[in-house]
Design a protein that fits this description.
This protein is mainly α. Among the domains are: 194-244, no CATH class; 270-319, no CATH class; 335-402, no CATH class. Helices cover 74% and strands 0% of the residues. The protein has helices at residues 2-28, 38-51, 55-65, 72-87, 91-103, 110-122, 126-134, 136-139, 145-157, 161-175, 181-193, 200-209, 216-228, 232-244, 251-263, 267-279, 286-298, 302-314, 321-333, 337-349, 356-368, 372-385, 390-399. Helix 1 (2-28) packs across helix 3, helix 6 (110-122) packs antiparallel against helix 7 (126-134) and helix 15 (251-263) packs antiparallel against helix 16. The relative contact order is 0.04. InterPro entries: PPR-containing_protein (IPR050667), PPR_rpt (IPR002885), TPR-like_helical_dom_sf (IPR011990).
Amino acid sequence: MAALRSKLRFITSQHHHHLRHYSAASILNPDSKSPLSGKDKSRAALTLLKSETNPQRILDICRAAALTPESHLDRIAYSKAISKLKDLNHFSGIRSFLQESTTRPDLKSERFISHFIVLYGQAGLLDEAKRTFEEMEKMGIQRTERTLNALLFACVLAKNYAEMKRVFVEFPKKYGFVPNLDTYNVVIKGFCESGSASSVYSILDEMKRNNVKPNAESFGNCISGFYKEEKYEDVGKMLEMMKGYKMVTGISTYNVRIQSLCKLKKSGEAKALLDGILSRGLKANCATYGHLILGFCKEGNLEEAKSMFQKMVNSGLKPDAECYFTLVYYLCQSRDFEAALEMYKKCLADGWVPNFSTMKSLVEGLASISKVDEAREVIAQVKEKISRNVEKWNDIEEALPK
């Protein structure tokens, strides 16, 4: 009898395993007959999540992929799923999914729990983030500065800066934590994002007292915060302070300054800063030009944006997808469809296609200037490259002038 029960248990467990395997495969890759590897599951999940708008289906995709924050792809998938569910106001789904994740035996470690605390913050569910932090002891997981930093970052993501300040002031004493560089950097970021950049002076003083040396990220956040509040004198003070720490002002710091100026619609000043950098022999990177291209596009100066793109290419740098997407989008917005088409062709040659709404704008724009053959060619290329939205493209093609 015992042997029979044991056999039945084995058959049942095998049956459940088969069902789980079947459902995962049917959700993530219904056309495939062979089982998916872990990486294939992650890739399939990420692709599906990008276009999925049904909250239950988003959860089914995540569960089918058995996501784990250990994998970079899975971390992106987790974040994408939480963002989508938040946009859909499906907070009960976020709660149940993250609750499941925190109770999975394979994910019971401080590293993974810290990641879930951050995801709660991303969803704006700060009470759940704090509860998870408080319950770690019950889970048998020791809290360290890593978890403290995760909770502080959750506060910043949730834009609850008052709570960030409270956690920073109270928790180190309460739990015996010693704030480290990451702790201070998160708090600096929070103060600068919240319009309280002047508070960083007291944080930098505390760091000095505790022998914690600020890094490029610390000063980058400070500089960004002061630019945002248009406190240019304080930007200068930060640059002087960097010299005091014998820190070389590298391209990452200049990129923060250039991006900040562009956000203030001072792209001309940002370009002058770039010219100064280049004249001193420092090399700009893709991010430098990307900030300037976006800045000039937003200010409606498309000629300067195109000039920056050419300068980047001439200097031997390879534009990234975001750079192409920005230019195609804004060229369409300014109704320069021929220039947008040329930029799209370069983008396609590098293996990227802008999103559906940008491409629709390009196709309809080309048709409006009697370039119907080019519009049809673009539709054919997009359909070949991306299997999504094929029916929508067929309808758009059908509506083009004959």
